[in-house]
Structures are given as C-alpha cells and as structure tokens.
Amino acid sequence: MTRHIAVYGKGGIGKSTIASHTAAALGLKGFKVALVGCDPKKDSTFLLVGNRNVKTVLDALRRKEDIKECIINGFANVKCLEIGGPEPGIGCAGRGLTLAFEHIEKEGVFNNIDIVIYDVPGDIVCGGFAVPMKRALEEVYIVTSGEYLSLYAANNICKAAGNIGAKLGGIILNSRFDLKKEYEIVSSFAKMIGSRVIGVLPYIMKIRECEAKGKTLFHFSDRPDEAEYFIKLAEEILKNSCKVVARGIEDEKLLNYLMDINI
C-alpha cells in the first residue's frame, strides 16, 4: 500500500529542500519514491532533476498530452512530478491542483510506488491547496523556524489539518537564527497544538550551493555529515507511529506566547 506524506510550511521556509532531500534519502534506502511539487513555481523537484524548465501536469492537460510523460527519473531513482500552475494573473492555482489530482488518480500515476511525498506551498489559503493534505490524510508534516510569521503559518496549517481530520506526523524545525532557542520555542508550540518535533535541521550553508547547482547534499562527498541530518529525518518519518489530529491555537495565544519569550 502506498504511503502518502504531505509537507507544508510558510513560503521560503525550506519545504522543497527538506522534501527533496527526504525523498532522496528514502530512495537511497531502496524505496520506490515519488516527489510531487504542488507549487506553481515548479521548483520542488529542482534539486533532484537539476532543471526548472520541466513539463508539468497542467501543461500536459492543456495540450491534451499523456501526464505520465511529465514524470522525470531524478536522483536516487525518485520519480519527480510537478503539478504546475496557471499563467500569472490568470486562473486559480488551487483549482489547478484539484484538476491535476483528478487526472493523476484516474491514470494511476502512483501505482507501484512505496512512498509519495507532496511538497505544498505556504499557508492554507483555499481548499485547492488542501487537496494534497486530503490525499495524505494520515501523515502531514509542517516545516517551521522559530520566527513568528513561520509559526503563524504553521498554526494556520494545523487549523486546516484539524478541519479536515488530517493527522499531523510532527513539526520539522528548520533553524534560521539560534538552534537551541528555536528548538525550545518550536517544542513548546508543538505541545500547544498537541504534536511534537520530529526533526531538527541546523542552518546549513552548503544548501545555497545546492540550490545554485540543482543538486542535493548527497551529491557532495565533502560534507556527508550534513546529509546525515536528512537521513535521520527520513528514518524518523519511516518509523513514525505517533500521528494525531492536532488543533491550531488562537492567534492571540500564539502571539502572547512569543511576546513572553521576547521574539
């Protein structure tokens, strides 16, 4: 049975880096993995395929082409697929996701895949962006730093998950300024919403080079210790049996908490 995992978080918080590295780590372990980019910018799979100019599912549907032709075999044999989006200023990205997944389901794109990871952009602003969450109803992860806006987005995502009954597998801390302090902040936040921190990633300078070259940390043999962070995260996700229907907290309560700790 295919395991569906959705990764959410504020825009620019590192979702795509984490989703692609997790997919690569699982692929290197021998799992048949698919990574689905749900961002209209179509950059979720870039580190695995090294190319931003890929044909998307919505491109194929517009041209009446086979959507299976959009699947690219990326690093670690990960099957990479970008949903794409409408032309800027025209159409609705959320509606595009709904349409794309209807065809993906119909065509059986993920038959014979062990794990599908969905990389979903930003905050939940419409029902369309909750479609991957509904597909990964048993396992949603939220990426955040210890910063207010990141936690605010994480809280809203948690509210969305609670509204549709999706289970939260945990919070992934992607540190931005002070790992120790951020861990304390995010751990407390996780407890407030009834979840826990499942992964901790320090700030890794090498990621900038990865993003420039379209490669993962696994491509660079000089810093295997940094890639180990993602291997550990993948292992934690693999064995995770603690998934709950978490509930977001009131915005005022979150703000008051962060003000109390002077962030």
TrEMBL record:
<dbReference type="GO" id="GO:0005524">
    <property type="term" value="F:ATP binding"/>
</dbReference>
<comment type="similarity">
    <text>Belongs to the NifH/BchL/ChlL family.</text>
</comment>
<keyword id="KW-0067">ATP-binding</keyword>
<keyword id="KW-0479">Metal-binding</keyword>
<dbReference type="InterPro" id="IPR027417">
    <property type="entry name" value="P-loop_NTPase"/>
</dbReference>
<dbReference type="GO" id="GO:0046872">
    <property type="term" value="F:metal ion binding"/>
</dbReference>
<keyword id="KW-0411">Iron-sulfur</keyword>
<dbReference type="InterPro" id="IPR030655">
    <property type="entry name" value="NifH/chlL_CS"/>
</dbReference>
<dbReference type="GO" id="GO:0016491">
    <property type="term" value="F:oxidoreductase activity"/>
</dbReference>
<keyword id="KW-0547">Nucleotide-binding</keyword>
<dbReference type="InterPro" id="IPR000392">
    <property type="entry name" value="NifH/frxC"/>
</dbReference>
<dbReference type="Pfam" id="PF00142">
    <property type="entry name" value="Fer4_NifH"/>
</dbReference>
<protein>
    <submittedName>
        <fullName>Nitrogenase iron protein</fullName>
    </submittedName>
</protein>
<keyword id="KW-0408">Iron</keyword>
<dbReference type="GO" id="GO:0051536">
    <property type="term" value="F:iron-sulfur cluster binding"/>
</dbReference>
